[in-house]
Design brief:
heterodimer; A: alpha/beta; Rossmann fold; Ubiquitin-like (UB roll); de novo design (two linked rop proteins); 3 domains; 5-stranded mixed sheet; 18 helices; about 45% helix; globular; B: Arc Repressor Mutant, subunit A; Glutaredoxin; 9 helices
Amino acid sequence: MVFTPVLSRHWDDADSFTIDGYTRRGGYTALPKALAMEPDALISLVKDSGLRGRGGAGFPTGMKWGFIPQGAGGPPGSDSAKPHYLVVNADESEPGTCKDTPFMMANPHALVEGVIISSYAIRAGFAVIYVRGEIVHVIRRLQQAVIDAYAAGHLGKDIGGTGFDLDIVVHAGSGAYICGEETALLDSLEGYRGQPRLRPPFPATHGLYASPTVVNNVESIASVPSIVLGGAEWFSSMGTEKSKGYTLYSLSGHVKNPGQFEAPLGITLRQLLDLSGGMREGHRLKFWTPGGSSTPLLTDEHLDVPLDYEGVAAAGSMLGTKALQCFDETTCAVRAILRWTEFYAHESCGKCTPCREGTYWMVQILQRLEAGTGTEEDIATLLDTCDNIFGRSFCALGDGATSPIVSGVQYFRDEFIAHITGKGCPFDPVASTAFANVASAGASA
Amino acid sequence: MAVTDDARPQGDGRLTEKTRVEMREIIARYPKPRSALLPMLHLAQSEEGYVSPEGITMCAEELGLTKAEVGAVATFYTMYRRKPAGEYHVGVCTNTLCAVLGGDAILDGLKDHLGIGHNETTEDGRLSLEHIECNAACDYAPVMMVNWEFYDNQTPSSARDLVDACRAGTPPAPTRGPSSLCTFKQASRVIAGFADGRANEGVQAGPPTLVGLELAKARGDEAPAYPQSQQSKDA
């Protein structure tokens, strides 16, 4: 089996997003089963499954849950124990990443059921879905799912007669990429500018309102109901040795059939391209990101890299969000890298100097390189600046900003040089557009 | 300070006691009041089309914060507008993938066509334009948003038609969204957390979302079934 649709299994049903549709297809059956278990048994189940965070970092989800102090100062819910919180990171904004958005639009109840089970496991009575503010219809679907889950008795007081209480708030962000960083998200959720916090202490002990908090990605939390129903062995029967389970791969760019593909971890880009129709007609793959723009670029040499956490790391990049942005030979690498760098400069929160100043100056250098007025020394300055950002920034945004540049110069130095010697960009931007493709395909047909 | 800059338009008095009551409803959702600030700013924006000095004052009063504290938050986030947005706020994704696939050409075309630039509003107040960052729809590139609803797979000419229709007051329905487009103010109200009852409108998924599932079905690929032992053991 190449593909294993679990999360996406019912997306083609027109009522997949309604509570009736979800329930009719077996939704909310994991919930009573989970509520009959001890919370610690659920944490063990998720640990044993091998589920790793699907938001990019790949940290083991069960282990993250296990870091929450369980009733250290008193029994859960008592005044002597701080409340626990679950926060779902639904602020999907890593460039190229487009999996959680269609997921929440097509099946918000799988997320809500996952939130209820996960909150019970970590003994949280209040959960927040922090969703991007820039996609209103996803917000609507989440709001309605929560309203319907309350009406069905899945949320509120004494859920299913078990004595477990939970409230969920759908909280929309306001347009800041940095809020995808979990501590910046928490600051934003507390009503402040979204800037990352110094760690330690970690959110597991000092998260929302300085209380124990788990922050998990949408796809991670939405995987929990299936793990409860199928068991740890079932989940870990898919995937590779250290990267277990199924996941959503998002194929985009100059491919014939962009879209979402759910497969066990470890599939290769070659398999995905071969089965989905490949690159657009008459063109070949030039470079791609395995997991968003913060993961170093790969090229057509890396088509057979297993797309799991270890495989992509061994190839010098990161699995990230599995956002496979594919660019063909019509694309100017310098232009692509400039645009990503402009993004990081725009989204840098300004808290730390290496990232704030570094991204600003890298944009200046890349702009002149792309315009054909740069020098070879500029390339060296770029790499030196990256050296001074990477590992020296407050959070991963700075590190991510260096990824396209360092990998881009590594693979496409000749192209940077060509801009300098040719005093301009050798590429025709029209050739790389989606509509140019349609026009030329129509003409040749 | 920027937020009290005299050059900025003043609030048009749309904030009322009802707004204040609704701000208190937002505050009541959270364990701690200040968590309500971002949605409260969206609510103020839903009344006035931007975050006015009056909106900042009202948020500050309700949360016991200074106007400077609220202003510092409001200016951090790009979704809060400091001048009135158009009735139709148009965003063109020009992050790398959309830019390369045509977003740059679309944005340039719209600037020429409308005679406005990034973060500007047409004189009739109908349209405002913004270049936006990746909006999580790369499999539908190039992507545009109007009032934060998806308009997928755009071209320069389809984009021109779209803004012309908005200007004429007859915008087409979003590609993946409600069956008709709401205004910027109405959208801001949903973002503030006030459901508009339109969640059931529109498709559950567009074609690219379903490409992988359809391929799996055509191949007969499925995930392994849940084990029977697992089900009976815990039943």
